[in-house]
């Protein structure tokens, strides 16, 4: 599977102290994948009590294009445990 990063994603990953390897792992071996805005997908993986969330698009030829990625402590919110 080929994974590409748009410039925005590379900037945000660097700002947030993430590695491309961690983002690759979240996409390749996610705990869950859900639908996002504009037909995008959101891969989530637990990491030391937090979640890494990777927003990406999949092209028609199977290339994964990473839009952004971040770590959050709001595990219950994103795993569906928080009531709205």
TrEMBL record:
Q: Which InterPro entries match?
A: DUF4258
Q: What name is this protein filed under?
A: DUF4258 domain-containing protein
Q: Give the species this sequence originates from.
A: Thermococcus thioreducens
